[in-house]
Amino acid sequence: MDIRNRLFPYPVLCEDTDDYVEGDFYVETKLLEQNINNILVQFNMHLDNPGLQNLINTGKAEFVIHMECSNTAFRTVIRSFSNTEKYRIMNSRVNGDISLLGMVVSKEKIENYTNFLLNEDYEGITLNIDKASILAYDNMDPIHIAKNYEELAEKESIFSVVKEIRMDQNER
């Protein structure tokens, strides 16, 4: 899941907009471990914006990582107030690319939002931000999970092919 060419009615910190004159938000991903059972991933959130960091520190916003594997329909959301988060995935739940989106999301309605790094376009405007609004985002690089296909061939399939036999038909 990527956010592309989307307009927001409030300022968002990202590389696609000029809503903030300074600051940055990005998430580094490290694949710490991959074995036959588990994949351990570490996310390091880098937020260079004192106003948004204050919202996280006071519990009004949080870091959110959206993970999705379209090959297996795996999807999850990781929420954190910490700048570092580890997450363990069962190896059987993913295969191929895992899409990642890092965000800062409001946990409650924020009235009269101000930030001294906002673009002058927001000067004199009262900003009210709804709960669950994206305040910053980073379209992260996907993680590629390469599996041993011999390992996959040994596993039983969730599907089985059987011949349908009806009482009114002969077997063919």
Determine the number of helices (DSSP H or I, runs of at least 4 residues).
Answer: 2
What is the general shape?
elongated
Q: Helix proportion of residues, in percent?
A: under 10%
Radius of gyration: 22 Å
Order of helices and strands: EEHEEEEEEEH
Features of this protein?
172 residues; mainly beta; three-stranded antiparallel sheet; 2 helices; 8% helix
How would you describe this structure to a colleague?
The chain has about 170 residues and is mostly beta strands. It has helices at about 50-55, 150-155, and strands at about 25-35, 40-50, 60-70, 75-80, 85-90, 95-105, 110-115, 125-130, 135-145. The protein has a 4-stranded antiparallel β-sheet with strand order 4-3-6-9. It has a 3-stranded antiparallel β-sheet with strand order 1-2-5. A two-stranded antiparallel ribbon has the order 7-8. A hairpin with a 4-residue loop joins strand 3 (about 60-70) and strand 4 (about 75-80).
Short description:
The protein is mostly beta strands and 172 residues long.
Please specify the SSE layout and strand pairing.
Blueprint: E1 24-34, E2 38-48, H1 50-57, E3 61-69, E4 74-80, E5 84-90, E6 96-106, E7 110-113, E8 127-129, E9 134-145, H2 149-154
Antiparallel strand pairs: 1-2, 2-5, 3-4, 3-6, 6-9, 7-8
